[in-house]
């Protein structure tokens, strides 16, 4: 691919398929990123440092992170004339994936759960409802920190499910991504899309588990379903994952 791609930012809600998107993006040659540098939260005290990292980006590079929406961060990207891809997922599957991730990775919540000796069900309920004593928001309030990106300008929002639902859905999503970051100016667009898809390998992700759509149906019981509906049922409808609360 002869034409250079302007630097961009890849943002995702945690446990929404971040590594799958890494593979798609790096399959669009010659795009690269620093795997050791991942920006978090984006609160005011971090803004100057984040700006410095974004300003370091060169052509054909992107930076990744889990960044909350704020008008300050939106303005930062606008001032840098930088586009953003935002990836999100059915929040019920996020709960399941996050629970297994915490169980496996030595993170603060891992230590909290070990100390409390919570069951799998209790862990999922705590992710849904929040853990005030550990400073962790419930799933509704947590995603709400990111939700503003869905309507922000110069942002391409992608659902994780559209990357794995079917070959046709994947093709359409990768086409959108390629056109978004290249401004649709490539003569060999189909070749670039094919290369990006061929770069996908779930075995190469240390945190990829099942990556299934609707895996929550195998994990949630009636109590967990009720808790989720009470906490974030309307949000699921807003995001287009359900039409009502009758699920």
Tags for this entry?
247 residues, 5 strands, alpha/beta
Task: Write a structural description.
This protein is of the alpha/beta class and 247 residues long. It contains twelve helices and five strands. The chain has helices at residues 18-27, 47-55, 71-79, 91-104, 108-116, 120-129, 139-144, 161-164, 167-182, 189-198, 216-219, 222-238, and strands at 8-12, 38-41, 62-67, 83-88, 155-159. It has a five-stranded parallel beta sheet with strand order 2-3-1-4-5, with helices on both faces. α2 (47-55) links the parallel β2 (38-41) and β3 (62-67). α1 packs across α10, α4 (91-104) crosses α6 (120-129) and α9 crosses α10. The longest helix is centred in the C-terminal third of the chain and has 17 residues, at 222-238. The protein is globular.
Quick summary:
With 247 residues, this protein is of the alpha/beta class. It is built from 12 helices and 5 strands.
């Amino acid at each position: 691919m002869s034409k250079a791609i302007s630097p961009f930012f890849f943002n995702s809600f945690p446990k929404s398929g971040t590594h799958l998107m890494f593979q798609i993006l790096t399959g669009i040659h010659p795009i690269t990123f620093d795997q050791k540098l991942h920006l978090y939260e984006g609160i005011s005290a971090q803004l100057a440092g984040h700006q410095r990292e974004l300003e370091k980006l060169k052509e054909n590079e992107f930076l990744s992170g889990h960044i909350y929406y704020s008008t300050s961060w939106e303005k930062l990207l606008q001032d840098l004339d930088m586009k953003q891809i935002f990836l999100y997922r059915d929040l019920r599957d996020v709960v399941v994936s996050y629970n297994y991730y915490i169980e496996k990775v030595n993170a603060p919540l891992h230590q909290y759960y070990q100390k409390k000796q919570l069951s799998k069900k209790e862990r999922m309920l705590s992710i849904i409802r929040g853990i005030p004593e550990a400073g962790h928001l419930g799933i509704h309030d947590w995603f709400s920190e990111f939700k503003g990106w869905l309507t922000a300008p110069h942002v391409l929002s992608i659902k994780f499910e559209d990357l794995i639902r079917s070959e046709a859905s994947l093709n359409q999503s990768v086409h959108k991504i390629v056109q978004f970051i290249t401004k649709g100016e490539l003569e060999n667009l189909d070749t670039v899309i094919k290369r990006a898809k061929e770069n996908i390998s779930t075995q190469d992700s240390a945190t990829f588990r099942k990556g299934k759509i609707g895996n929550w149906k195998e994990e949630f019981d009636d109590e967990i379903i009720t808790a989720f509906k009470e906490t974030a049922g309307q949000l699921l409808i807003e995001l287009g994952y359900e039409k009502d609360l009758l699920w």
